Amino acid sequence: MRVLLVEDDPQLGRATQMGLDLSGYATDWVQTADSARSALRSHDYACVLLDLGLPQADGMVLLRELRQSGFADPVLIVTARDQIPDRIAGLDAGADDFIIKPFDLDELTARIRSACRRAHGRVHEVLRHGALAVNMAARQVSLHGQSVTLTVKEFGILRMLLEHAGQVLTREQLEETLYSWGEEIESNAIQVHIHHLRKKLGKELIRTIHAVGYVIDKTPAGEVQA
């Protein structure tokens, strides 16, 4: 999952980015409102973590701009402003959550998962597809009740395809989700990850649509759609 972190404090921004990366997120970090606008024009993000006290423009201004432009993905305000009127204003402006600094990284990632779960219309942290179960919070995968170990990138691809089951995703869309700025991407990286997923989870799970991309069908192979 690719996340945009908008935070002007260098120490906090660097620490948060490192923590999120270690938690399996692809995190782009910017320090100004203008840089955030540029990043959002160039990339697709599953979630935005937004500080309010930014140079150039207050984060609340940026939040209103995003919502007025039709940006529908989760935006979580992360700020030192802890007054009730600030929280009300942020939520009324379109924020999905309001997190007070200093924060616990585990709580932050839980709130990100919760916001993204709501955005996808899910209630539970476990995604199921036939005999496959994927626990988003614990980042655990099981097949027929047996644990399966995936790399961070393999888990990211599986999550993306399951969340968009029935929809063909291109290599570029998958790369956009998996890699943050500065990460080197081999030309066949996605193909290699898909190959490994098929070896671990069965070749019938992920279908290749020639010259288009990859898809996990909504109805698991062998099951009859009602």
UniProtKB/TrEMBL annotation:
Domain (Response regulatory) ranges: 2-116
Localization: Cytoplasm
Biological process annotations from GO: regulation of DNA-templated transcription
Chain segments annotated as transmembrane: none
Predominant location category: cytoplasm
A Gene Ontology term for the protein's cellular component: cytosol
Residues of the signal peptide: none
Entry GO MF terms: phosphorelay response regulator activity; transcription cis-regulatory region binding
Residue list for modification 4-aspartylphosphate: 51
Keywords, in A-Z order: Cytoplasm, DNA-binding, Phosphoprotein, Transcription, Transcription regulation, Two-component regulatory system
Known DNA-binding region: 124-218
Name of protein: Response regulator
